[in-house]
Amino acid sequence: MTRIVECVPNISEGRNRDIIDAVTGEIDKAPGVTLLDVDPGEDTNRTVITFVGDPENIVEAALRLIAKAAELIDMDKHSGAHARMGATDVCPFVPVSGVTMDDCVELAKKLGKRVGDELGIPVYLYEYAAARPERRNLADCRTGEYEGLKAREGIPEWEPDFGPFKFGRSGATAIGARDFLIAWNVNLNTRDAKIASRIANRLREKGYAKMDPDNPRKFLRDKDGNVLFQPGKFKDVKAVGWYIDSYKQAQISCNLVNYHVSPPHLVFDEACRLADQFGVRVTGSELVGVIPLEAMLQAGRYFLRKQGVMTGVNESDIIRCAIQSMGLDQISPFDPQKNIIEYMIREPGHLTSMKISEFMDELASDSPAPGGGSVAALCGALSAALASMVASLTFGKKGYTKFNAEMDEMAVKAQGLKARLVEYIDRDTEAFNQVMDAIRLPKKTPEQAQARERAIDEANRGAAQVPFDVLSLIPDVVKLAKIAAEKGNRNLTPDAGVAGLTSALAARGAAYNVRVNLQSLPDDDFARKLKEDTDRILREVDDIAAEIRRIIEGRLWD
Questions:
Q1: Cα–Cα distance, 271 to 233 (Å, whole number)
Q2: Considering the entire predicted model, what is its pTM?
Q3: Which of 345, 369, 384 is the C-terminal boundary of a domain?
Q4: Which residues are catalytic?
Q5: pLDDT digits over 52-69, tens only?
């Protein structure tokens, strides 16, 4: 699995494009990282920058960015609507793929030490990287903002985790490790920031101050004199209300710290309910930066369920529903290719990005790849797609409504299997190419010959594993085809039958490719287990496919 870390520094400049470009330009100078998004805000005078990379290189990119921001941004001259305490205000690391939160904590500490030692900027560690419990919350680290930093000097509890205990024109930087944070604003049809704040206070975890029922101008306090708060609706949500002059409307600015606990679609619906109580309307929402694919799919399916329609539809349709339902394109266009992190990272497959005619021409050429392995994966994907089609055209139809829940679940599974199998169309060809690359390695010296043999053995194992992975998915596909044959709309009987046939073909084609690659491997535990599992799965698929044929032919030949 590729190791990917996200880094989301926020710099205190959102108006001067030359400075923003100079700061983000530093990211391109570090290898192994990719700039995903630059989101400046004129009113907040702040830019959210998002880039991803491998753990080995992402610290260097972040260090370069912080250094350039310190060089170009003078905090003595800064003003904006957003809380801030430094030229680079915050710089969190977020695990995306193949890394843990503990890995990101170590990255935060490594960067913090280098920023303190090499740049002379005070650093406070926060969130999961916090060295002290009282610094876990970013808002606590940023108390007093930039203007209050000088008053900290000499007070032990405010000593930075790294760097000098002295604050200059660059201020201080909070560096941390956190879960994926969705920065997101809900738009209101009012200019009244007070109304936005009241709604925000009821959404956020912290909640709002309790008032004395006998004196509505007086806060309720505990025995130590601290103001008592009524907790808000959602955990792991931070929210404030503000007015954005360039939009001519108020917003509820939200940080969804853990979208698994409090997803945007639920926060959005509650914001709509509260807005109605306060006599205003939610007109849409605005994403700041990027969002995980999972959050968009959760939202799309949630709103589809509310409409009483199927959720087992194409991924693009689910995302479109999420965008429309939350008004994510009200203020500016929401482009899934630019706003969903997985879409921005992944590279389109060479084969799967072709037109059908182009793929067929490539398949029919004198090149050995793509070949049968890629076609087997394609057959599996076609079977899953047909099963999904049958489910979609059965759902809600007269005489079949008793199967609605089963058809929806079936379509969701089919869509997922289709997507995974499509990926293997390219992976199979890539595995073949790796074998050929290994064979072409030099072998003039004993050392070269040994390295070449090791590379060939590893590539052959990969070439056997890829079609086996395809084969491993087919039992789930053929089971869906059987449900389509047994319970699907009878007008689609031939389609269910073709789903069964293509799944059987996919399984046998994948098995052929496993077997041929096993011939190049020694008879070790890996090869023996792969052979046994291949035969077992193939028998299972053949049995179910035979049942499907009996069902289909029993109907069509009656």
A1: 10
A2: 0.76
A3: 345
A4: 82, 428
A5: 989 989 999 999 999 999
